[in-house]
Amino acid sequence: ERAYRLAYAVYAAQGYVQESPTEWVVRSYDSNKETFTVIAEDPEGRPAGTISLYFDSPLGLPCGLGYPKELDLLRRQGRRAAEVTRLVMAHCHRHSKLLLVALYNAISAYARRVAKADDFLIEVHPRHAEFYTRLLSFERLGGECACSHVQGSPAILLRLKLDLQAEVIREIGGGRKGTGSSPVRSLYSKFVAYEAEQELLRPLLAEHRAMSGEERSYFSL
């Protein structure tokens, strides 16, 4: 609930959601037993940021509404996709690369090592696309369209091959210097070393659980 409320507060301030009496951003995909949501707290225990992964299932993925052909192509190739969604940071932390790295590091290790996903998909505003392609090795997969999840704001679909991500983290994760083939500038140098990912996952796996039936009812899912 704290994650959903933080997302609502940030999205409402940007005009991305309609007014809601619950002040939540929660979707039917959150009831999927595989959905993975992380919330980060500041030293005072206040929610600082959150991020979620939706895994492809019979319910589909949110990006499939705007990009059905692109998602179907990955499925035909036998690739398992996970959509990165509800990435928000509290106003006072919105420029924190440290927080962004912590959130992405968590979902990346989980997606590759636990969920055995092949690709990350994310819908971003066109003006943010360069950040993801330059610093996180995403590539453009779909053209610009109106995203229904954020009141019709423009979005483009980006894709990250997780095996490529793993290679980069092996080279420069944990602050390693890497080689000439490594990205010149990459947030992956701030990620934990590839060999340390299991330790990163331990507390996350201890806390993670699927939404219960009672919780689905509480959130009207």
Which helices and strands appear, and what pairs or packs with what?
Elements: H1 2-13, E1 36-41, E2 47-55, H2 68-76, E3 81-89, H3 97-113, E4 119-124, H4 129-136, E5 139-147, E6 153-161, H5 162-172, H6 197-207, H7 213-218
Helix pairs in contact: 3-6
Report the biggest beta sheet as strand number plus sense, adding barrel if it closes.
Answer: 6 strands, mixed
Low-confidence stretches: none
Rg is 17 Å
Q: Secondary-structure element sequence?
A: HEEHEHEHEEHHH
Mean pLDDT over the residues:
93
The number of helices is 7
Account of the protein in words:
This protein has 221 residues and is of the alpha+beta class. It has helices spanning 2-13, 68-76, 97-113, 129-136, 162-172, 197-207, 213-218; strands at 36-41, 47-55, 81-89, 119-124, 139-147, 153-161. The protein has seven helices and six strands, in the order H-E-E-H-E-H-E-H-E-E-H-H-H. Strands 1-2-3-4-6-5 form a six-stranded mixed beta sheet. The chain is globular, with a radius of gyration of 17 Å.
